[in-house]
Amino acid sequence: MSWAAHELESYFLQEHLKHRLKTKVSYLAILLGCLLPDLFTKLPVYGLKIGDMTLIKAAEPWKYHRGWPGVGATHSLLFIVLFALVILAWKKNRAWALGLLLGGWAHVLTDCFDSVGTMLFFPFTTQHYSTGMWAYAAQAGRYGDASAYFSSFGGVWDFLWLCLALGGPKVFTRKFFREEIVPNDSAWAWLQNRFRMSETAMLALYRAYFVYGGCRIFGWFIWSRLINPERGTQTLDWSWGGPDWVDKAPDFQTADTWAGFIGQTAIGIAGVSVSMWLIWRLVGRRLWARAH
Amino acid sequence: MGRANTGIHYGASVPRSEKIGYAIAVVILVIGGAFVKTAILNWISGPAIVVASVVISTRLFGRYDREPVAGEGSDS
Known about the structure:
heterodimer; A: about 290 residues; mainly alpha; 12 helices; 2 strands; B: about 80 residues; 2 helices; elongated; disordered N terminus; disordered C terminus
């Protein structure tokens, strides 16, 4: 999992979508989409601690979070499509449906970079897709995970997203906010009227997840490398799949052979493609035409 | 920078009071976050700290912001 990339990728998408899409896209929906797969599923990954008691903690966090049975389905392409479709039917808002779709897919694809990966083509295959760039370490608890993540390529990955977001500085300007963000989404007018928010406050809210995402990288890195009492043994390890010192999640729901992998992938791609085509033909295009 | 262009500007002049607000938020999130960790660095309180810092600092220091010069425009 990524600790800051999901907050930062929304700004990168915003920068690159403007010229490529002819229809409106809501920034708030992209952000929500980027957070969506973890939004209601993350608590049992680390567990809820009250005093000395740990409640609702998954015994095998990697299976619960990314696998099946579990909530791994939330990290699949088709789940995001269905969620966006529900929003399109409910709110009749194209900008929100499209934003959720793009943000959610960005989350699902970026999570493919840790050692557990995601079930991209669920439910047609439970095959996991992963580059194994850094070790998934939720089983080490919140602070163990933070230490492992920021001692490995995970932290570098987040820093890369920070640089990518900074590569399009105009998305942070007031002018961009006024001309591109606000007109694409009636939610900003609602926020202004409902909470009497000034433009400065709304602009701060728009920029907030960038500032928070960037600071999260440095705050957790400082903790893991300078304050963490275990930092003597939990050393910096910029090797592929590192750090070596963490108890890694075992491989599961992965094919044993290349032929198996290719077969499962073909089934998955075909299943998801046909499903998406059917969804569009039977429901999607009618909902799209009805929406504004 | 880019003011003569009709495209989107880079917004060179963010009001000083806003800059102070963002700077305070960065200090709280990075230094505070390193020590307090999840209590600050979570997806609700983290962004809320940014918004609160900017709103409070524009209230406190807004009077010191430079008045816009006539014809200068405002893209910040």
